[in-house]
Write a structure and sequence with these properties.
Radius of gyration: 52 Å
Mean pLDDT: 83
Number of strands: 16
GO biological process, one term: defense response to Gram-positive bacterium
Low-confidence stretches: 1-14
Strand order of the largest sheet: 1-2
Organism: Poecilia latipinna
Largest sheet: 2 strands, antiparallel
Protein name: TNFR-Cys domain-containing protein
GO cellular component, one term: external side of plasma membrane
Structural class: alpha+beta
Keywords: Disulfide bond, Membrane, Transmembrane, Transmembrane helix
Distance between the termini: 201 Å
Order of helices and strands: HEEEEEEEEEEEEEEEEHH
Helix content: 25-40%
Length: about 240
Amino acid sequence: DCRFGNFLINKIILKKNQVDSVTCHLTEYEIEGECCPMCPPGTRVKTDCTEFKSTSCQKCPETTYMDLPNGLKRCYPCSTCGSAGLKEKRGCEITADTVCEPMEGFYCTDSTSEGCVVAQKHRSCEPGQFITRMGTASTDTECSECISGSFSDGTMLSCQPHTQCEKENLQLIKAGTASTDAECGEKSSSTIGIVIGVLMIFLGAATIGGGVFLWKYHKNTQPNSSTNQLRGVSRFITEL
């Protein structure tokens, strides 16, 4: 009758108001106006609770995880470190996701409290620049320009001064640049020949000069024959 119909309508309205106003405890989840106990980390909801039994939970399957108490029917899929520049720091567990970190030569550009999500390759310094700060897992490499008179191929921690060929008794073949050292070589054979020739002339002149000097000295110190004869006559007269 009409009274039974009104009862059903009021029951439906009351149920709707209960659904709209239900507030569950932090350890519970809401399902169709009812509060059910959450499943612990590492598990997910198999069946919701009823007025006669509690929530039924099930362990997360392999390659999935659940890191918080929950009222979900599925666990989260484990992340992989397959992105460029990332490697696995800690494997996935049923209570924690995979943790990634930058590979050698990369740094993290997007991270979480646990690990790295996106990594980028360290900057390479250009020829003519030197590395002022090496890149780390969290920072990029920093580069600076070489000053005049020095060079770097881009992999050095400081610019090196150009080799001074003259100071090493070598001949400059190619001047140094900001990215390359000066090129030196042995002095040319013509230059060496001139030096040797000058030395030979000097030695020859010295030899000739020495010979003339010795000849004159010998000539001046040797007594002549007439002087010897006079000395002999004088000695003979004295003996008589």
